[in-house]
Design a protein that fits this description.
Layout lengths: L1 E6 L2 E6 L19 H6 L4 H14 L4 H13 L1 E4 L7 H12 L4 H6 L11 E4 L4 H7 L7 E4 L10 H14 L3 E5 L2 H5 L3 H15 L3 E5 L8 H13 L4 E3 L11 H18 L4 E3 L7 H15 L11 E3 L2 H14 L12
Parallel strand pairs: 3-4, 3-10, 4-5, 5-6, 6-7, 7-8, 8-9
Antiparallel strand pairs: 1-2
Helix pairs in contact: 2-11, 3-12, 3-13, 7-9, 9-10, 10-11, 11-12
Length: 339
């Protein structure tokens, strides 16, 4: 079964597939660092801000269409817990939520009864990987692990590489690494390339998401150039933030990174994924990001192998909005707990 929604001339679909297989496209092998291309990258900040300011008003969806888009948002969500007090029981509850993200009665009311709907992945610290792998066994939902001295990325380099290898060995299918921000701020692009290349090699068959921590990179031009260098070095995804910075995902940053993904695809033919993370906690914000991806990159990038939300509280708000769509009433947040 497919639930479809149309907004003007656009269509979004939620397929009854649950989590998609890990590799739906050719992986990014990277390329030789092209400094002429990197130096040529510039960003018109005013134009980017105008484009982003106009998006929420131009792309709004209502009623059944909105419900379908929100169901799509769930399928591309990395349900995340990255707290110092994480326990195996908390991770187990989160994994159960990932396998059944929306209450069965709501799914039935939306015409999705008996259809398999899951989040895109579970994202945890290294220590919680075994618990997550056990809880998700047989579900097809991958485990993503943050690595390389997350969130600051300032531990010794050999330890960051070893952490990646340990997480892959423990069962993580995706690794979210953090780059060294100082290399971007100092314009040391070759060193950033070499670092990212080493992280990519250490991941082996696991997909690697490069976290740029865009709130700490100073300018959109730095964001664009760092995005391009990481893709050249083999990143399968580029990701905005750790969620721990004072400024995390924003629409201007997202547009800047997405445009670099498009440019890289035009030159190499390789599809790179995008993950906004941090600060996306409301259903209406998720809709805007989905619209941005569709307009800039097309339907292909509305799948979990190429787009993810890094989120912890977003799912609860989406479920509240779905209940309002079904019943006409908003429910209390505690009725939509994460586990």
């Amino acid at each position: 079964m497919t639930v479809s929604a149309k907004t003007k001339s656009t269509t979004v679909s939620v397929q009854n597939q649950g989590a998609l297989p890990q590799v739906q496209h050719i992986r990014n092998a990277g390329m030789v660092l092209d400094m002429d291309w990197v130096r040529a990258v510039e960003v018109n900040t005013s134009a980017v801000e105008r484009r982003c300011a106009s998006l929420p008003g131009r792309r709004s969806v209502k009623k059944d269409y909105q419900a379908a888009w929100l169901l799509k948002a769930i399928t591309v969500m990395d349900l995340t817990t990255l707290s110092g007090d994480d326990t195996e029981r908390r991770v187990n509850r989160l994994c159960r939520k990932a396998m059944q993200p929306v209450r069965p009665d709501l799914l039935a009311a939306l015409g999705m009864e008996g259809k398999r709907l899951t989040t895109g992945a579970i994202c945890v610290y290294h220590e919680m990987i075994p618990a997550a792998v056990r809880a998700l066994e047989g579900s097809g939902i991958p485990v993503a692990a943050v690595s390389t001295g997350f969130p600051a990325g300032l531990s010794p380099f050999h330890l960051r590489v070893a952490e990646i290898k340990a997480s892959v060995k423990a069962g993580a299918a995706e690794i979210d690494i953090v780059i060294s921000r100082r290399l971007v701020l100092e314009g040391k692009w070759q060193e950033l390339y070499d670092e990212m290349r080493a992280f990519r090699d250490a991941c082996g068959d696991a997909h690697v998401k490069a976290i740029l921590a865009t709130g700490e990179l100073g300018t959109l031009r730095n964001v664009a150039r760092a995005s391009l260098v990481c893709m050249m070095a083999g990143a399968d995804f580029i990701k905005t933030s750790t969620g721990k910075e004072s400024v995390n995902a924003t629409l201007p940053v997202s547009l800047t990174m997405i445009r670099q993904i498009r440019a890289y695809h035009e030159v190499t033919g390789i599809e790179i994924g995008y993950k906004p993370a941090g600060g996306i906690s409301k259903a209406k914000d998720a809709l805007v990001y989905l619209a941005l991806m569709k307009e800039e990159l097309g339907n292909r990038w509305l799948s979990p192998d190429l787009f993810r939300f890094g989120a912890s509280s977003l799912l609860g708000d989406i479920e509240r909005q779905l209940e309002h769509h079904v019943t006409g009433r908003y429910s209390a947040s505690y009725r939509h707990a994460m586990g």
